[in-house]
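Changelog note: in this version the structure field was regenerated for every chain. One regenerated record is shown below for reference.
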Amino acid sequence: MCLAVPGKIVSISGDEPLLRTGKVNFGGIIKDVNFAYVPEAKVGDYVVVHVGFALNVVDEAEASLVFDYLREMGELAELEERATAGRDER
């Protein structure tokens, strides 16, 4: 199943709206994301991301709620395993 997952923006680079990219933190996993669809997004915002594109900005409470639902469905196991493995390697 393909899911859109919320994450917190930790950095943004570029001024051109269609070319803005940055780093998003998904529970300890940092991924590169394109912000073309959310020109209003800024560092510290939470965004819902699907296949590398931020689709919309959400508040922290909504992001947390989505994470809780995904965790209940067992859809975050792979993400959480990667985050734990990354901490063990340090």
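Spot check on this record: The chain has a mean pLDDT of 85. The first strand starts at residue 5 and ends at 13.
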